[in-house]
């Protein structure tokens, strides 16, 4: 049955996740305050952040204003944050989650994710990318995902996270956790858009009842210079003519079609914007339906174009747990 008009998907233990959330990576504290306000006004109830984004405190201020003024109840909101790479040790999970909760001014988050399968070794809560005397990132080669996950489970039992999940893990890494967990990963957050549709990873998650969330659902335009990998014409999914044609047929924008495509695939989307009009535009995706033929045309656009390869972190692509060396 097509339930793509419903605003939520089932996440875990009766808990629901809104199908659309506001992305906040690369938003300064001032930008994020305006963006979260605009998003809540537009109807969003789901915000995606991370300890790494260094904007949790600003998001927390806005949430507190909305709750204190009686405009919103805590339980109407869905807040996701993520364990930083320097937190990938069992003994650090509670510490970092408590820091995030303090920043967000909340007593629990709705979803807590391990941000990345590879940890960095550092002792300073504020040094997110610790480097040695030669300027090289200090990677952790002894981390153990199973014990790390057990520390995540403890956070659910302690009431600090309603659900827990993973980000940037491949299917083999997820499988190791699924096989040994008491509380299964409820969510997987990975790059996904019409040029990188992750068909096999989605099928794997479906089999294990793991809700998938797409980051970079609009192609994360202009984020970094990708010309070294893609040549001078970096493919931009927002400019795709097939997407534009479908958008015209529905009197919608290309962004709305890209988001709607993922929503109809039962994927949660977290588009980022700091523009009030684009924040509203991105939420207006529940008043039209893509036909089977249009869904098929969009499916054909897949180019397997992964853009997030985390190579800005030196040494990461050579780490034995680098997630993107296998197809999915
Ligand atoms: N777990 C992880 O490792 C990662 C998680 N994420 C999460 O996913 C979120 C989304 O991914 P992100 O990389 O930000 O990329 P998105 O695909 O959401 O693209 C954001 C870009 O698109 C622009 N944009 C937004 N809406 C529109 C629109 N309607 N029309 C045209 N352009 C638009 C934005 O500009 P403007 O702001 O000016 O509107 C911005 O430049 C992040 O913010 C973060 O929360 C992202 C990367 C990795
Ligand atoms: O969420 C994030 C956005 O993407 C970045 C990689 O380019 C990461 O640093 C960070 O994990």
UniProtKB/TrEMBL annotation:
Q: Where does substrate bind?
A: 115
Where do the catalytic residues lie?
53
Q: Name one Pfam family in it.
A: Aldo_ket_red
Sorted alphabetically, the keyword list is: NADP, Oxidoreductase
Instruction: Give an example GO molecular function.
Output: aldose reductase (NADPH) activity
Q: Which PROSITE patterns match?
A: ALDOKETO_REDUCTASE_1, ALDOKETO_REDUCTASE_2, ALDOKETO_REDUCTASE_3
Q: Is NADP one of the keywords? A: yes
One cellular component (GO) term of this entry:
cytosol
Looking at the UniProt record, the site noted as Lowers pKa of active site Tyr sits at 82
Which intervals hold domain NADP-dependent oxidoreductase?
A: 19-302
The Swiss-Prot or TrEMBL record describes its family as follows:
Belongs to the aldo/keto reductase family.
Return the PANTHER family for the record: ALDO/KETO REDUCTASE
The protein's name is NADP-dependent oxidoreductase domain-containing protein
């Amino acid at each position: 049955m097509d339930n793509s008009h419903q605003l939520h998907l089932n996440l875990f233990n009766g808990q629901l996740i809104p199908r659309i959330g506001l992305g906040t990576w690369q938003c300064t504290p001032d930008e994020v305050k305006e963006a979260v306000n605009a998003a809540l006004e537009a109807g969003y109830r789901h915000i995606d952040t991370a300890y790494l984004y260094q904007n949790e405190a600003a998001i927390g201020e806005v949430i507190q204003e909305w709750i204190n003024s009686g405009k919103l109840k805590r339980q109407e909101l869905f807040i996701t944050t993520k364990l930083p790479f320097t937190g990938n040790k069992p003994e650090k999970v509670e510490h970092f989650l408590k820091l995030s909760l303090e920043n967000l001014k909340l007593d629990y988050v709705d979803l807590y994710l391990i941000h990345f399968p590879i940890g960095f070794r550092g002792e300073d809560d504020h040094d997110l990318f610790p480097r040695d005397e030669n300027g090289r990132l200090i990677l952790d080669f002894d981390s153990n995902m199973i014990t790390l996950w057990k520390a995540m489970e403890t956070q659910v039992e302690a009431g600090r996270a309603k659900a827990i999940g993973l980000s940037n893990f491949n299917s083999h890494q997820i499988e190791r956790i699924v096989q040994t967990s008491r509380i299964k990963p409820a969510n997987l957050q990975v790059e996904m858009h019409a040029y990188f549709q992750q068909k096999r990873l989605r099928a794997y998650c479906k089999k294990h009842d793991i809700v998938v969330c797409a980051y970079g659902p609009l192609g994360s335009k202009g984020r970094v210079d990708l010309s070294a990998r893609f040549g001078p014409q970096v493919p931009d999914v927002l400019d795709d003519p097939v997407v534009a044609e479908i958008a015209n047929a529905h009197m919608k924008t290309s962004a709305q079609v890209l988001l709607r495509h993922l929503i109809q695939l039962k994927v949660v989307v977290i588009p980022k914007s700091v523009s009030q009009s684009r924040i509203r535009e991105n939420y207006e995706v529940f008043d039209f339906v893509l036909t089977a033929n249009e869904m098929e045309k969009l499916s054909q656009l897949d180019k397997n174009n992964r853009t997030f390869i985390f190579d800005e972190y030196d040494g990461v692509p050579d780490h034995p747990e680098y997630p993107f060396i296998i197809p999915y």
